[in-house]
Amino acid sequence: MAERHAVVIGAGITGVLTARQLLLDGWQVTLLEGAHVGAGSSSRTAAGIRQQFSTPGTVWGMRYCVDFYRRFQTEVETGEPVIVQNGYLFLHDDATRWAEACKVVEMQRSVGLEVDMLDGAALRERFPWVGEALLGGTHCATDGFLYPHLIYNEGARRVEELGGTLVKKAPVTGCTLSGDRIASVTTPKGTFAADLFVDATNAWTRRLGEVLGADLLEVAPLKRYLWFLARGGPMSADTLAHMPLTIAPTGAYCRPDNADTLLMGKKHDTPPDWAFAYDDQDAIEADYSHDGGIDAKPFELWMELAAVIPDLESFDGFSATTGGYYATTPDHNPFLGFDRKRPNLLRLVGFSGHGAMMAPFTARVATALADAGHDLDAMDLEGTSVPLDAFQIGRAYAHAESMVI
User: Fold this and answer.
1) DSSP E strands: which ranges in 120-219?
2) Which CATH superfamily is domain 5-71+148-219+330-391 in?
3) Which of 58, 138, 164, 209 is the most buried (most CB within 10 A)?
């Protein structure tokens, strides 16, 4: 078989794990990064990983991802854990939404995911720290969160160990074409030719699309923040350390960052920031800063979470704020498919906050599409046919992912 060359653009978690998988599949791979490994959203993520999604294909894919990260542990030289399986707990206080959540759980169970539906009494028996007003919650014990710095750094190391080439500070600034196909891309570090080009730039994807003359996909860069709250009051360090990633009925969420610090966040309305720079990821607007006073957003969030986890009222206060960008699509499902203008450009973007958790599945989709040379309606994933129609470019936005935080 003739040697196949791929250039993967973007060395976040999606890019490095896709490059790794392509190498394992027999491709020669060059991984290009505009700044440094993990410079984008991968280093600024809440890093939750869950299998509780609302479409069967995503549930199947995420079951694979959880298993992958368990196995990936053997590739981490330091031996540090990359996944912590504290679970995910979705809380409900509205009867209609609780009934809808129970229906989703039935679908999740039908594809083999173990999820518990806990009514109010069962919920408080298992998690005594939740409030009295809740009607119930859904809990998947094998969900949890990741340590992203280990994944993208060890993933990049594995790319080079497997024979791939990693080129940093190499933003793509131009390209040459052969007909409508990309022949090579140009960077400050040189020109790179390939048979296949992979866009793993996520929030930067429209800029890359402009450079390559590709589709300007409906992917909006939206600013998101995370806040860190110091433990205090009656909650013990052990209770905090073992708390699942917990989502309040308002959409506010929290998880342990460590035994003495709670990480918090919430989806909020914000206009797309089309012209953001790398440094803008770390710029914190006053209204979103933990130093912004009691009227600032993080204090509102603290109170929302304390309404369902009363012990949080006694926590000691904020220690930090971080920021970054979600690359959001209209239906909150990513685009995983070939570009309609550049047929050898594979787009893996628009993860709407789910990029780190979905990356192993994304990498397997990418290699399946790369081997086929065209989009697929479904792919075999360890003996299961997983539908891919929800991720295709040009799809009708018929089913929006409803479980977005």
Assistant:
1) 136-140, 144-146, 165-167, 174-178, 181-187, 190-193, 196-199
2) FAD/NAD(P)-binding domain (3.50.50.60)
3) 58
